[in-house]
Structures are given as C-alpha cells and as structure tokens.
Amino acid sequence: MDKYTIEIQIEVPTDLDTTLVTTALTDIATATLTYQQAQRGSELCLVISDNATVQQLNRDYAGKDKPTDVLSFASEDSFPGQAGYLGDIIISLETAAENATRNQHPLLAELQLLTTHGCLHLMGHDHATPEEKALMWQAQADVLNSANIQVNLPD
User: Fold this and answer.
1) SS3 letters for 83-130?
2) For the chain, does the N or the C end have fewer beta carbons within 10 angstroms?
3) How far apart are CA 90 and CA 130, in angstroms?
4) Number of structural domains, the chain?
C-alpha cells in the first residue's frame, strides 16, 4: 500500500502538461504530508478548478463572495494522529496564474505552493494570528525548499 493516496482532478482546460502537473502536485502533497508526519494511509483530493467554482465555494462555506487561490475543506471524520480521509483542496487555476505572474515564478511552482498550503491547512495549520502564520509560512518554506522548488513566497 502507498504511504498516502492523493487524487488529483483537473476540471478546467489548460495548456499545462496534465501528466507533469499531476506528478508534481502528487509529489509535493506527499512531501508536505511526510513533513507533517501524517499517518500512513492518509488520503486527500486536490481539484484544479476555475474562479467561478472557487468563488461559489468561498461564498457558500466561508461567507466571502470572491474568488481566492486555494480553499481547504478538512474532513469532519479525520482525527489528529490517525489515518483517514484528510479532506479536499480546491485551487483556482486563474487566480494561481495571476499569483504566479505577480510573484514572478512559474505557474507550476505556484500550484505546488498552493498545494502545500492546502495540505498544511488539512493538517491543522492556520494563519489567523501572526504566530500561526509564522509557523505555517515556515512549514511551507521548509517543504518547498526540501523539494528544490523555486518560488517567491508571499508575505
């Protein structure tokens, strides 16, 4: 059995090589879960979608009627320290592309950053306070650096 099960769905047309993207995002999600010492057998689903879908989810579940780059929905059935379904990560390809242009790094690197960010949320990280944000941003940097991903991290 694999250490983790990571399902990736790309719902929008893209010029990106979907095999390359799927492999890269599976690898960085695995690296993030390993960094966080997720239990063997943990599972998650990652969906690459569009701004309209992400905006609707953001409005319905977070009360924010605007698109965002990444949303994480932790499973209500997951428990810290136990294997199981961790939850879903939804990334807006359009917003990821805008972020990549603004931060001057490749789109694939942005998708890897957002995947890492979403996985960290599923593992209990947050950035609501300066202390939480510092811990989460350090974890992001550690994972991305360990995978040799060159990305200009946001503040």
Assistant:
1) CCEEEEEEEEHHHHHHHHHHHCCCHHHHHHHHHHHHHHHHCCCCCCCH
2) C
3) 24
4) 1
